[in-house]
Amino acid sequence: MRFLGIGDSCDLGALYLRLLGEGHQVKVHVANPICHGTLAGLVTRVDDWKTELNWIRAAGNGGVVLFENVAEQRGQLQDELRGDGFNVIAGSAYGDRLENDRGHAQEVLRKIGLSICPTRTFSSRPEAIQFIRDHPGRYVAKFNAAYETFVGQLPDGRDVIAFLIGLPSQGKNESFILMDHVEGVEMGVGAYFDGEKFLKPSCLDWEHKRFFPGDLGELTGEMGTIVTYDRTGRFHDLTLGRMDAFLREGGYCGYINLNTIVNEAGIWPLEFTCRFGYPGYAILDSLQRTSWSELFGSMVTRSRESFDTQPGFAAGIVLSTPPFPYGRPEVNVPVGLPVLFDENLTDDDYRNIHYGEVGLQNDQLVTSGAYGWTMVVTGLGASIAEAQRRANHLAGRVHISNVRYRRDIGDRLIGGDFQRVEALGLLDDP
Length: 430
What we know:
The protein is an alpha+beta fold. 28% of the residues lie in helices and 28% in strands. Strands 14-13-10-11-12-15-20-17 form an eight-stranded antiparallel beta sheet, with helices on both faces. The model has no long low-confidence stretch (mean pLDDT 95).
């Protein structure tokens, strides 16, 4: 098969390497020049992806275009390529709106019968600040088409007001929502949608977004996640499964995730991720027995109802290096630092190492890219504790200057959160 990856920073590097390892042809367009070192010497990079479309078309159903991220007009471009007969796996213009327009997404979720946290959309910070002063409470502020999020801690909202005052402008037409804070267990549900239907099984995930152990520090893209394909049907049917008609009508084809808070009062949806999530896709890779090429081939031909997965849990840990959780060139730190591994790693160990922002320099694997998303390591186990232990052990066998990662991925689930989810009746019977 032939695969053409299109993105800004080569987010799907581990997936591209897996496809190459399966014997397929892969070319990647990396739009951000500062990221051109990512996967350098490992994957063929092309400057103009449009010149590769005939190469993809010549492969028929064996030619697939993969879009990495949600960006301005990119969903519309995906729709146009599909209209021209190309097999595109990513999302759609409809998916872009679900992810970027949070107020609209909440309205869609209300229509499919989910409990909605009171949410208000603002385009004026002074108006939002006055609203909080008039209605004191604990709020979460989330900016549309941006990744700036602030989870308030104070019951009168003073900390959210301070955030809105201090945060630099997010652009000329910035908009954001204020959502009432809901206490509970944060968990997500994700699945592959082939344009007509969801493939079974879906996955459940528990993300860890704060930079430091104990859920302290900055909100990052992600520091680690616990995922499973076991006992997921009931939660899928209650949540994401209700979206099939909307996604079908919206021309969606790709992976989609819905993040929620669950508690004794119900399921409270927060937001969609309408693309491959990082590091989520890499962690799922460790549990998927069906190869990526088989999975993608079946999606573009709509030829199967399900795919094969491994039982149990996967724990994924992001190994980051400076400037993470910030970016270059705003934070001036060096790249090109050597990435070394214990000499006695097994093939199974390497299977659980998923490259992120790395590349080859003089035949040496080194750090690269804009953000310090250096790699992800995974551990599998019948229990969350076993998966965590194996992931932590493998992380300690990767040696990179100034590497930082969390060793507590899964602690809250082990300490009672997973038992709470079970007690809520949200999982399939064992």
